[in-house]
Amino acid sequence: MNKWIVKAIQVGSIQLDRSAMTHYKGKGEQITVPIWCAGATDGKHKVLVDTGIRDLIEYQKAEPGVRQTPEQDTTVAVKQIMGWEPDDVDIVINTHLHCDHCGSNSKFKNSKFYIQKSEWEAAFAPYAPEAPFYDEICFNKQAVNYFQWNFLEGDAEILPGLRVITTPGHTRGHQSVLFNTEHGVLCVTGDICNVADNLNENLEPNIVVMVPETYESFKKIRQVAHYILPGHEPAVINGSDSFITVL
User: Fold this and answer.
1) CATH number reported for the structural domain that contains residue 103 in this entry
2) Residues 13, 66: contact at Cβ < 8 Å?
3) Listing from the earlier edge strand, what are the strands of the sheet with 162-166?
4) Residue 175: is its pLDDT beyond 90?
5) Measured between alpha carbons, how far is 5 from 137 in angstroms, rounded to an integer?
6) What is the C-alpha to C-alpha distance for residues 89 and 92, in angstroms, rounded to an integer?
7) How many domains are contained in the chain?
8) Which pLDDT tens digit goes with each residue over 200-225?
9) Collapsing DSSP states into helix, strand and coil, what is residue 78?
10) 48: domain range?
11) DSSP assignment letter at 230
12) DSSP label of 24
C-alpha cells in the first residue's frame, strides 16, 4: 500500500467569533483561523486537496473577515510548500464547492478534478443559506473544462492509499479525503470539521444543512482516521506534515 506525504498549505485566514466554528462554544472570543489546502505525493503523483479563494474582495462579501497575504495566493503557496507549478498538479480533489475551497480551480489546467456528483448538483441549485458560499465562477465551464471533472457517487479509491469518503452535513455532497501515511490514516476533512473541536467534542461546524448527517459523518471519520487536517484549524502549522490526533 502506497504511503503518502501530506503537507498543510495555508491560502488565507478568516477573523471571526470562535463560536461561529464551534456551535456557540466560545461566544465572544475573537480568533483568526487559517484556510487550509493540502498537498500530497506518493513519490509519483501530485495531489492537491482544495484550492482556496479566487478573489479576496469577492470572498469578503461572504466572509468579511477574510485576509490573504501575497505569499498565501494558492499557486504561490503550493510552489513554496510543495515545489510545484500549477501545471505539475495531477489531481485536484474538492471536498466541496464553497468558494474558499474551489476558488482557484481555474489555475490547474492539467489536473483531473474529483467531486461528488451530488455536490456538483447542489452547487448549481443551492438552498438560500448556502447561496452566498457557492460562486459559480469558481467551478463553471469557464473555470474548469467539463472533461476535467470526475463525478463520484459515494466512497471511492482514487489511487492506492488515497480514498474519498462521503461526509455530508456542511453541504449535501461534502466529501473528505483519506491518505495512508507512515504515521497512520490522515483525513483531510474539509469543512465537515472546521476545527478539531467539531470532531473531538461533537460540535457542529459553522454551516450545517443536514444535522443528523453531520453527526454520522463525525462517526465515520472517527472509525477510520488516526489524524485530521480540519479546514480551518489554527493549531496546524503551515507546511507541516503533523496533524491533529483523533480522540
Assistant:
1) 3.60.15.10
2) yes
3) 156-159, 162-166, 175-181, 184-190, 227-230, 244-245
4) yes
5) 31
6) 7
7) 1
8) 999 999 999 999 999 999 999 999 99
9) helix
10) 5-245
11) E
12) T
